[in-house]
Amino acid sequence: MELPELPECPVCLQNYDGASTIPRVLGCGHSACEVCLAKLPHRYPETIRCPACTQLVKYPQNGAAALPKNIDLLSLSLSLSPPQNPNPNSDDPRKPRQQSADEEVFKFLPRLWSDEFYSAWKDWVVGYDAVLVEKEERARLCDSGAAVGLVQVGFLERLGDSKFEFSYNVRVMKCLSEMTEEERRELGLLLRGSGRQCRRIGKVYGFWGNVEDGVLYLVCESQNGRFEEKLRGLRNGDGFGRDGLCGFGVIGMEVCEAVMGLHSEGFVGGGFGVSCFGFDEFGHVFVDLNEVLVMGRKVWRSVGDSVSGRKGIGAEEMGVMFGSLLKDEAFVSMEVLFEVLKKEGIAVECESSKYMVGYGSDVWSLACVLLSLLLGKEFSEEIGNMNHICDHSMYASWIERVGDLLDSRLGSEYASLRVTLCKCLNYDPASRPLVIDVMICIRELIIKPQYDIMAGLERPVKENSTSCCLILGELCQMPKKMSETQKEHELQGKEVGGGADFDQVDEGRSENGFVDGLAEGKVKSKVLQGHRDSITALAVGGEFLFSSSFDKTIHVWSLQDFCHVHTFKGHEHTIKALIYVDEEKPLCISGDSGGGIFIWSTCSPLGQEPLKILYEQKDWRFSGIHALAFRTGYIYTGSGDRTVKAWSMQDGTISCTMSGHKSVVSTLAVCDSVLYSGSWDGTIRLWSLSDHSPLAVLGEDTSGTVVSVLSLAADRHVLIATHENGCLKVWRNDVFMKSIKMHNGAVFATGLDGKWLFTGGLDKTVNVQEWSGDEFQTDFRPIGSIPCDSVITTLLCWQGKLFVGYANRNIMVFYYGK
């Protein structure tokens, strides 16, 4: 047998019993228990928010006990056998699921990515004006002047021929969302490793999009020029002589520490060159991730050019390829090169291709860097003989020759360093020493072994498993992929994929819609012409779009094909406000600067004369009707005499005059049971629609600065106001949340549909924002903009269409069309 649904308090979820839980009726018609009502916050005097519908209602001065009891709920509760209190944390299948505000989305505006994806990546977007490019792939940060390197990782969203322009942030985020999961995983590892402030790894600042060439770059710390300058003479000459071994020891130890820092973050470089290291501002050596990635891409490009169209290569060709890379100071170990060839689908005739890539691979590359610094040209010449790496005997003889060069440079005094460096060049990675062992041997050039305390410390060996090998990763393979993607990008600018966070792909991405369609040219636009002066208001109702103008007329347009249907004439003054009402019969209501309120029938056939005309009483303060709103039998007008008036639809009389504003009431909005009025005095007043009493005042500036309110948009808990100075202010449950600069100049129009906010004004631009938030914070994400050729005076969102009215007499309609 199905259990009865017992009445309960919406706050404490306790059943009403008439003793401890007494239902009290609020002005909105909902009930809550007396105890909970007394504990709810009273943000404004004599008002309270209903816990059921969240509307502001009147609250008596002497408390909840003065509110009437809900006798019906109490009788029902007492007449039924009370079951045990339900668990408030469980979902009752008997209760219908209510659609939340977060689920209300503008029909043709998709969620481009999830909130989790946006939160994970938004802080890594470098501002478009934060980087100054000096030359190709070299730049500086504008705020600090620090040198940075730029590594191409993708392409920004192309604008194409569409009038819609994605914002800079959206173009960067969309590029990230289109990457593969593995590419984003590697980028996430680099960003997180840099975020832990390991000073042996160069900083990764984030992603910067060059809007001129349409390329997205990874911005990395790069002091490579300073490092090259300090070591150029040594590397191009004979390296460090015996008198300079102490200097080599200092630099060599720093290089070893930098490689160990990279390993501590779970990275294997896969290969290094002298250019992969730099000096930071404190004179310490760090790994330049920018140069490591650049060198890795050089390896892939070189291999690709050598084996293009082939299925296998021999040992001799392998040796030539390996020697060519070493001559270019791309010191990659044999096992890394074998792995690159394997990923290219190339079979290698060499038994040594079985070795795995790991931390030992970096030891081989590290030894080559140290030998290049220590021996100079002698090592460079010896590298030229590296053409038989697949022949073990010939490779062993090459190591012996390198050892002889070290003997002549170091002498017998530092034999242990010679032995260690030669072991680093072993074919088998497992037989190579650890990086820390190499560093200890180099310390002997500075500190005698008997005085080196560190040499006797126990050193745990980390397992040879890694999170990411940079050279073998997706980031270094990107140029090959991007060369194909770039062609599609240039021709079509297609969009793919999506993402959720650093390591996951977003599976919940919506289908193409309004914003995507605008960028792809799939959203069509149509210009409606006919007015002879600036458009002042737009309204939709029935099968028609209504537009008013300073030319004192109202044009009626078909929503089917946007053709002109009819013109309402009769106003003697400029029309400033327009609304559509659908009660007993559909009506169009307009208000003009002379105080006239015209009521027009929209039933077919459309007539020439208004059904009724109402006039405000004029006095010396009068300046006409500036705003209109409607709710259940009343027309509300915002007037130049600083009042809001409620007009009865039955007899056309003024039922109530709401006073309080100190200047023109410029805009009105109705949401649930509250009327919002915005004024040139900079404030927003809330009025109860049940008795037209004042509820609250928002936006009072104690500093004395007054910025006119020009438009309002209300949706359940959220109120958005736009101002004359281009700012937008947000309140949630009447609590001020945020103020942001949205436009350069006055914002005359705003439209809110679900999470999508459209604003337009004096700067001739329609901005599209996605807003999100809760009781603690509000966030606006710039999606894009529509540049216009005239000032935007009004706009309207309706069923996936965007109507924009201009000061140049035209109306633009944007709608989805395949």
Account of the 3D structure:
Among the domains are: 1-87, Herpes Virus-1; 115-221 and 495-511, no CATH class; 224-442 and 468-476, Orthogonal Bundle (Transferase(Phosphotransferase), domain 1), CATH 1.10.510. The protein starts with 22 loop residues before the first strand and ends with a strand. 26% of the residues lie in helices and 30% in strands. The radius of gyration is 36 Å and the shape is elongated. The longest helix has 20 residues, at 245-264. The protein has 17 helices and 46 strands. Helix 7 (245-264) packs antiparallel against helix 11, helix 7 (245-264) packs antiparallel against helix 15 and helix 13 (392-410) packs antiparallel against helix 14. Strands 5-6-7-10-9 form a 5-stranded antiparallel beta sheet. A 5-stranded antiparallel beta sheet has the order 8-43-42-41-40. By secondary structure, it is an alpha+beta fold.
Question: What labels would you give this structure?
Answer:
single chain; 818 residues; alpha+beta; Herpes Virus-1; Transferase(Phosphotransferase), domain 1; 5-stranded antiparallel sheet; 17 helices; 30% strand
* Class based on secondary structure composition and strand pairing: alpha+beta
At the fourth level of CATH, the homologous superfamily of the domain at 224-442 and 468-476 is: Transferase(Phosphotransferase) domain 1
Number of helices: 17
What's the CATH architecture name of the domain at 224-442 and 468-476?
Answer: Orthogonal Bundle
- End-to-end gap: 53 Å
Can you tell me the residue ranges where pLDDT is under 50 for at least 5 consecutive residues? 81-107, 491-513
Global geometry? elongated
Please indicate the percent range of residues in DSSP E strands (runs of 2 or more). Answer: 25-35%
- CATH top level label of the domain at 224-442 and 468-476: Mainly Alpha
**Helix share of residues?**
25-40%
The rounded Rg comes to: 36 Å
The CATH topology assignment of the domain at 224-442 and 468-476 is Transferase(Phosphotransferase), domain 1
The overall strand count is 46
Provide the residue-averaged pLDDT: 80
Side-by-side strand order of the widest sheet: 5-6-7-10-9
